[in-house]
Every structure is written in C-alpha cells, then in structure tokens.
Amino acid sequence: GEDVKVMGLREKDKITLTIACAFVGRHLSGIEEYDAVKRELTEWVKEITSDYTEREVTVNVNTADDYERGCYYLTVTGTSAENGDDGSVGRGNRCNGLITPARPMSMEATSGKNPINHVGKIYNLLANRIANECVEKVEGIQEVYVRILSQIGKPIDQPRTLSVQIIPKKGYDVEKMAPTVKRIADEWLSRVTDITEMVIEGKLRTF
C-alpha cells in the first residue's frame, strides 16, 4: 500500500527504525505470504541502511501485529485512512497555541484525532502538561522542552522515549532540578489516561 510511515530513533550509535506499512490484502495469498513479505521488507531496509551508516540498525515492521490474536496490518485500500483515524486538520495547529520554527516542535496534528489511543493527540497534550507543571513547580527554568516518542503496538503509558530538556536561568543548576522534573514526568505518565478524560470533558485545548 501507499501508506508507509517510518519512525527513526538514534541512541548514541544505535538506530531503531519502526516501519508501519499497510499491506493490500488482495495481493497476498494468506498469512504465510504476509509474514514472508514482511520479513523480506525488513531485510531490504537493513541492506539500504548499510549504504548510509555504519551504526547498528534495528528494523521493526508492523509492530502492532499479533499473530495469535489474528491481528495484521491488512487493508483494502493500502492506507490507514479506511479505519477513520486520519485526523484531517491543519498541521500548523499546535496544542499550546504557538508556532515555534526556531525551537523543537512536533508536526503532529493534535486536533482531529481520537483521544482514546492516538498518541499524536495524547502525547502532544501530555508533553504540554509536563512542561507547564515543571515551570510552575521548579524554580529557575527559563525554557523546557518535552519530547515523547511512541512505538506502534506498545502500551501508551510505556513510550519508547520520554526526555525533558531544560534551559535554566542564570545561576541555577539543572542537576538539582532533575529529581523533581523526573517525578513530575513519571507521575503524568502513570496517569496518562487522565489526558483522555480531560479532553472529553473539555478541560484541555487542542489548538
């Protein structure tokens, strides 16, 4: 299918690629062929990456598959849009109301996504809450950036990565802030379902 998404994460000298590739069911004879094509795709991507980097590369394809439950990324049209979760809204709508080209920002559209399990919505709002609470409760923060990276098929409260970057005011030490910041992030992550409830109740803005 034409709906292919690639997420890349580099941790020092290790690169992890997570690929979501919609397969078109009518072109496959069965699950055995689906699995064979998926493995072929994995090896093909590994070969390509060796042309560009000498780092260790791990490739994961369609990580939400669960063969025991009969769950596969099979589609009719070749896109995930047929599941009604396309989120057709302007990509410039930030959940914090800001457009910040000179600072880190996500191009994920917060509006138009379901608040139950779409990390494009939930993680944007969660990162915003963590950042706001850090500024409110930790003295000496000039700027704070929260990045949350998911991996398809993993529980929402277990992101692949959650990092908090702090730019302190003059005279303040980031290391002294770290324990409180980590506690705030961990607490919000443990109650990530609160984000869903807050969206449904209209307590969180999405743009």
TrEMBL record:
An example of a Pfam family matching this protein is AdoMet_Synthase
- Record-listed E.C. numbers: 2.5.1.6
User: Where does the source fall among the domains of life?
Assistant: Archaea
Transferase in keyword set: yes
Q: Which UniProt keywords apply?
A: Transferase
List, in alphabetical order, the Gene Ontology terms for molecular function in this entry.
Answer: methionine adenosyltransferase activity
What is the protein name given in its UniProt record? Answer: Methionine adenosyltransferase
Species source reads Thermococcus litoralis
